[in-house]
């Protein structure tokens, strides 16, 4: 048996792993989270079921989930871990978003699944930005700081030849995972001030990316619809969305060719952080 300990958003997680393949996957995908912890709030036990075959993921007090392959194992484990950490950190506003760092500030790429967050984040790492997350942005509402979630960057499709995968990428039936120690840029492990949100959507029909500032009211709606734990907050999470949008810059981005999209994000963000924010609410 191997014992793996994670620290995620200040929550200790302990995994008893009875399977060599599962241990390799967990250490590769969550290597940035591994550290010794004094106390674990969440406990898992991973075993292999021989017939009909698959990995069993058991959390303390809950019956096991069955994963038939590597993709299901990583999907089910992370989904459960995120839900359980959300319960332990109701003070954080969890948003479905990638997070990257530039010039000491964080930018968020907010969108539902399939809109190009992870692919754009992967490309941006080749343009001088640092990695914090491709999936999750937990925001501290009092300080407007965002926690990193540096699991292995996960792609659902192969990237373009401009941004090739490293040999160490982990391929499953549906995803490709790039461990943080094989990314082309440093990984952020500390909280960062959130400066700008880019609401991103890939559009294959346009020849060049389009960026424009977003009206506050529209930004609130878009942020709220991408929140993962709104009911943990006052006003069913709408108050928090209004607070965040009133304190950060918001842009709408229609992305197309990745190199041009990355340069547009980078130049827009650099120009934004060089100017003082207008904190006046206007809805």
Structure description:
It contains six helices and 16 strands. The model has no long low-confidence stretch (mean pLDDT 94). The protein has helices spanning 20-29, 70-88, 117-124, 216-225, 238-247, 258-273, and strands at 2-8, 11-17, 42-49, 54-59, 65-67, 92-102, 105-110, 130-133, 136-140, 145-146, 153-155, 170-171, 176-178, 192-202, 210-213, 249-255. It is globular and about 55 Å long. The chain starts with a strand and ends in a 10-residue tail after the last helix. The longest helix has 19 residues, at 70-88. It has 283 residues and is of the alpha+beta class.
Strand element count:
16
Radius of gyration: 19 Å
Distance between the termini: 56 Å
Helix content: 25-40%
List the secondary-structure elements in sequence, H or E: EEHEEEHEEHEEEEEEEEHHEH
Count of DSSP-assigned helices = 6
Identify the overall geometry: globular
Q: Could you report the average pLDDT, rounded to the nearest whole number?
A: 94
Tell me what portion of residues adopts beta-strand conformation: 25-35%
In terms of quaternary structure, the protein is: single chain
Main β-sheet, spatial strand arrangement = 1-2-3-4-5
Largest sheet: 5 strands, mixed
Flag low-confidence runs: none
Q: Assign the structural class, choosing from mainly alpha, mainly beta, alpha/beta, alpha+beta, or little secondary structure.
A: alpha+beta
């Amino acid at each position: 048996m191997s014992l793996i300990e994670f620290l995620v958003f200040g929550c200790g997680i302990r995994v008893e792993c009875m399977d060599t393949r599962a241990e390799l996957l967990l250490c590769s995908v969550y290597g940035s989270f591994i550290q010794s912890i004094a106390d674990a709030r969440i406990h898992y036990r991973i075993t292999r079921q021989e017939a009909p075959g698959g990995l069993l993921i058991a959390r303390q007090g809950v019956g096991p989930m069955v994963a038939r392959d590597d993709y299901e194992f990583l999907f089910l484990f992370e989904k459960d871990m995120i839900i359980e950490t959300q319960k332990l950190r109701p003070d954080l506003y969890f948003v479905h978003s990638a997070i990257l760092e530039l010039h000491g500030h964080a930018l968020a790429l907010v969108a539902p699944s399939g809109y190009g967050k992870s692919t754009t984040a992967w490309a941006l790492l080749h343009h001088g930005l640092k990695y914090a997350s491709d999936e999750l942005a937990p925001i501290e509402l009092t300080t407007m700081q965002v926690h990193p979630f540096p699991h292995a960057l996960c792609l659902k499709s192969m990237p373009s030849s401009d941004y090739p995968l490293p040999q160490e990428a982990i391929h499953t039936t549906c995803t490709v995972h790039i461990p943080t120690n094989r990314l082309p840029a440093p990984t952020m492990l500390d909280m960062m001030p959130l400066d700008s949100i880019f609401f991103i959507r890939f559009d294959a029909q346009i020849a060049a990316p389009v960026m424009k500032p977003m009206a506050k009211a529209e930004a609130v709606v878009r942020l709220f619809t991408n929140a993962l734990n709104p009911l943990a907050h006052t006003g069913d999470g709408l108050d928090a969305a209004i607070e965040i949008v009133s304190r950060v810059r918001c842009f709408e981005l229609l992305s197309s060719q990745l190199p041009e999209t990355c340069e547009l994000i980078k130049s827009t963000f650099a120009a934004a952080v060089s100017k003082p924010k207008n904190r006046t609410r206007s809805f």
